[in-house]
Amino acid sequence: MNENTATAPASPQVEIALSDDLAHGDALIGTIAPILRHLLANDDHSLFSDEIVARVRGMMHDVARQLLDALSLAAGNPDQRDHPGEHYDAIVHAFIADHAFLSHAHALALEWQLTERLQGRLALDPVLSPLVQALIASPDGGTSAIAMALLAAQARFVQNQRRMQLPLSELPADLLHTALKALRAPEGIEEIHRVSAETAIRVQFDESRSRLGLIERLIIGMGGGASAALSITHAGAAMFLSALSLASGQNRDTAVLSTNEGQLARLALALRASGLKAQAVEEQFLSLHPEVSLPEGFDMLGADRAAALLARSAAYPGS
Known about the structure:
The protein is mostly helical.
C-alpha cells in the first residue's frame, strides 16, 4: 500500500495488491528479531530508533533484576541488590536469544510509542479511554470491577514504560516460563535457591489479573458489543490492539506490529477480517495513518476473503 489509491477497482486486483504488500510485510517481520538481537548485543542503533532499542533493553534488564532479587530472597539475603554483572548478562542474553520474549518486549515498546503518538495527535488519554470509562460505569458489578482493575493496570503500564520496566506479573504465562528458565543461564547459582525462587514467583503469578488478561476478560465479556473496542479513538490503543488480535486471529504482538507504517496491508486485512465494513476500516486508518488511502475497490473485499488472505501470512499463527 502507498499514499496513492490503486487504479484497479476489481476485487481480484485488490487481493493481489494486498497479498503482495502482506508478503512484503512478512519479510519485514522476519527481520525484526535478528535486527533487535544484533542491536541489543552491540551498540549499533542505526536501523531501529534509539528509544525503542533502549526501552527493549531496559525491560529485559528489569526482568533480570526481578529474577535476581527473588533469588537473593530465596537464598536468605533479601537486602542484596548488587547482583553480579555476569549474572545479569547471562539472563539478558537468554532473553535476546528467545524470539518470543524479544518480540513481546519489542511489541510493548511499539504499543507505548503508539499510545504517546495518539495522545499527542488526538489528545487520547493513555490511561482512561471513553470505552474504559463506560465499562467502569457499567451496571454490571463484575464488569465495573474488572474495568476499574484495568484502569489501575493501565496506569502502571504507563509508569512502567516511562521507567523502561516490565514486571514479572505482566508477562504472558508462556513468557514467564521463559523468564524462569533464564535463571538457569548464570553459573554458580545453587539449584535449591533457584527452585525456591521459581516456586515463589509462580505462586504469586495470576495471568488473569495482568493488564492484558484484564483487557481480554473485558472484551470477551462484551460479547457482541466487542466491536466497539475496534475503534481506537473510543477504546484506546491497549484495548484496540487486543480486540484486533482476538477478532482477526493474530497474536497480540503481531497486531501491534500491524499498526506500523510497513504493515498497512496487514492492518487493513485484519480490520476487515474482524468484521469492520470498509468505511469503519477507513476511519481507523484516518486515526492511525491519516496520509494513507485504502485501495480503490477495497469495499468489495469480504471479511471471509480478507481472513483467508491474512491466514496466508508467514506471521499468522499456524503458518
